Task: structure prediction
Amino acid sequence: MNYTLHPLKTIDPSLLPKIAEIQLGDAGLLSRLGYPFVLRYFEIAIQDKRAFGFYAQDNKTGEIMGLSLASPEPSSLTSQLTHDRKWFIAQILKVLFSRPLIFLQMIISSITIKSQMENETDAVECVYFTVDPKFRGHHLGRTLQKALMDEGRKLGYKKILASIETWNKASLAATLSNGFTIVKTYREGIYHRHRLENRL
Ligand SMILES: CC(C)(COP(=O)(O)OP(=O)(O)OC[C@H]1O[C@@H](n2cnc3c(N)ncnc32)[C@H](O)[C@@H]1OP(=O)(O)O)[C@@H](O)C(=O)NCCC(=O)NCCS
Result:
């Protein structure tokens, strides 16, 4: 595969729908909330001062192949989803009536995300790394996560953290081969997750 990693902040906003489409391939809560939430989340992430990430683009075709995103305060990204009240209320009502369990999960996860980083100083969270199914299995996921580690180190962070569902073998393999270790296993509503960390 012949591709280049670019900083997510430099992406042409017209490519964000493709980023959102790829991110929908992740089984986490954001994807379960649906496409409008995913798209809005990435619109917020590229404007956020502290979040950073990368996207992989095919050198020949220009196709977006995958993305990664990190933040020292992931809860601030999700809380910014509520800033446009009218939009948020309309979207969240749809979730509440069509998928009430996901609504409940959103509340549980927002409390967990906030508390997980509360006592962490000099740490950054690997929030997402996702590869288009067409390009999986060629170490792109590992490379996108590694780019977060390198950038985090450059920015002066001392530790990187991640939460991964216990069934997610590909994500776990990539993260462990990037040098993370599992520090605990916990339940977060419908999710069973490992918490992993790595020194930068
Ligand atoms: C997780 C994900 C990004 C991995 O991307 P990828 O480019 O296919 O992964 P890589 O090729 O970099 O593989 C990294 C390691 O995982 C292993 N691996 C890849 N797919 C695997 C699978 N399905 N089962 C077991 N191991 C797997 C590889 O052999 C490799 O191991 P190695 O480093 O020891 O050689 C990709 O599967 C994905 O986008 N999944 C959906 C989104 C997601 O779950 N993201 C993570 C959320 S925490």
